[in-house]
Structure of Transcriptional regulator:
Amino acid sequence: MSGGGELPIGRRVAQWRTRRRMTQQALADRLGKSKSWVDKVERGARRLDRYPTIQQIADVLRIDPAVLLGEQSSTLAGAVPTDGLDGVRAALARYGVFQRAQCPVSAIETRRQVGHAWLTYQHARYPQVVRLLPGLLAAAQGIPDAEPDLLVQVYRIASSVLVKLDAPDLAWLAADRAVTAAGGDALLAGTAAVSLGQALRAAGRERLALAATLDAAVRLVPLARAQGRAPGGTRGESAVGGALLLQAAFAAATCGEAQRAGQLLDRAADLAAGLPDSAGDDSGGERTAEAQRTCFGPVAVELARVVVAVERGDATGAVCRHEMVIRRDGWRRLPAEYRGAYLVDAARAYLLAGDLAGAGRMLVAADAVAPAEVRSRSSARTLLAEIARGRPAAAGVARLTTLAGLTR
């Protein structure tokens, strides 16, 4: 059975496994199968043609079997309307169609709009960003070659919000265009690779994400420097290089390479040691500030250690580290989007530890900081539904499920 949709059923299994933040081994364990069996299914090397097996997989992934069969839209209530994404898709499809002379928006005005879009994104107002994107992408057609940093930022903001809205293939396309626009500029290429890594991980391509981000990090910040054996580069290079190492660590952890993920986090910590928290947003002058937008710093590394611990299944370690890191001053200086997304990961840590009340508190806190992170993102909504089924219900969870449209 391959279903009537565009993707083979094995690919859908891989995508939903990734959305549920499960490794192949974790899925195999819950199904009573081997990791090799899951890998073959996802690659299409093994046919998935028995409905009871499909239903079992769907139950583990907490979706309707029809979604795996391509017979039902996976869009959840409360998500950004499809027509919003259709507008972005159409704008991306017009790449290279119009001549620059036909674009009336100046680079100065485009730069102002990009700054507004980033600020809106950092406040987790994703529907508003989606409405801005078609105009920004059209304006990108008229950006001069002399301002590649601006073009990179247009595609990066597009990729970032598309990841949030469960459109990883479109996000991947936008990030790839950012990499192309960066050309031979190592710093710009590094910032574009951060977005590329995020999009590839969202698409379930962890190995590609690991290779792309690590390669970009090595070119921007040689590992000898990252490990403290050579003089450091600029603050901009350190911020972008560190953000790339964090993305590589996430990818390695999802691939089951816990030791490698730990090594990458240690290298990132070496780079962060010379930076203030959130240095990626305000260091190194106008050009580097616009080229970065990474929020990289010591606190970002510690938050990443929590997420990697969750991927390893170390719930106790993740919760203990989380409770320490959110007491740091740098935590409060991170954008709402960053904190909200992290708190959803922290909720997974508490749930993994068997603490439903703690998991509920984290989602309620995430909603207070960045409501769209909980109410619009499918992975967070699924997590909320799972926590809401627990008894006794955590304080505030019942109200949140109503706000998210999960109650009938």
